[in-house]
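Tat pathway signal sequence domain protein structure dump, as promised
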Amino acid sequence: MKKLAMSASRLLAATLAASPVASGPAFGGEAEPVPSLSLELNGLDATDAGCRFTFVIANGLGAPLDKAGFEIVLFDKAGLVSRLVTLDFKELPDGKTKVRQFDLPGVDCAGLVRVLVNDATECSGAGIDAGACIGMLKASTRTVVEFGS
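structure tokens r here:
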């Protein structure tokens, strides 16, 4: 009998642990989305003049951005800073994903090992804190080059 009671209590504990109420937000509601600005280095393509950077940027800050710009630092294979540039991503409506391309003359794509988002040079819009673009930045890459802040 003691063995049966122990099995029943284990079964009850396992059932409660797996239930949505026990594992999800209070009362089964949806969790509030965390505001973020996603910036993905999607591609690096050699051009006749240099390197074309393709970024995918998604505004999940909860308000439109009138201007978004970032200071980007490029590192070569020796780990040295090879270039510091400012990229203007222009306006970004709330909830919108956009693709932006930037041609950087004289940059050898194959010679890059890291791209650093050094700072946000522009971050403005109604209800947007000036530090939101860098503070809520979620950087990722689909390239072999390290990318982030």
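Residues 2-9, 11-24 have pLDDT under 50 and may be disordered.
lmk if u need the other ones
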